[in-house]
Design brief:
Layout (H helix, E strand, L loop, with lengths): L4 H37 L2 H21 L4 H19 L1
Helix pairs in contact: 1-2, 2-3
């Protein structure tokens, strides 16, 4: 446990950030899993909607600083590639 007042405040604020980041990461993971399930099912219309939602969730996570920009770009690119492969 910290003894200095500023260290105590830093501990409280980092705990709040950790919990907030955890909720965003959990949302990203659940939408990612849902998107993969829909893509493997093979329905194009619902797959497009799922990829769109996944992209939105990734962009929001980047905006909050939970994941890096290039990570989100890479994941969106892979999801769109899977969607294009399904559409063929």
């Amino acid at each position: 446990m910290p003894n200095i007042k500023s260290a105590k405040k830093r501990m409280r604020s980092s705990e709040k950030r950790r919990v907030g980041n955890m909720t965003v990461k959990t949302k990203v993971k659940s939408v990612r899993r849902k998107t993969r399930e829909v893509l493997t099912a093979g329905v194009v219309e619902t797959s497009e909607q799922a990829v769109r939602e996944y992209s939105s969730v990734l962009d929001k996570a980047v905006k909050r600083g939970v994941i890096k920009k290039n990570t989100a770009i890479r994941r969106k690119k892979r999801a769109v590639a899977a969607l294009r492969k399904l559409a063929k």
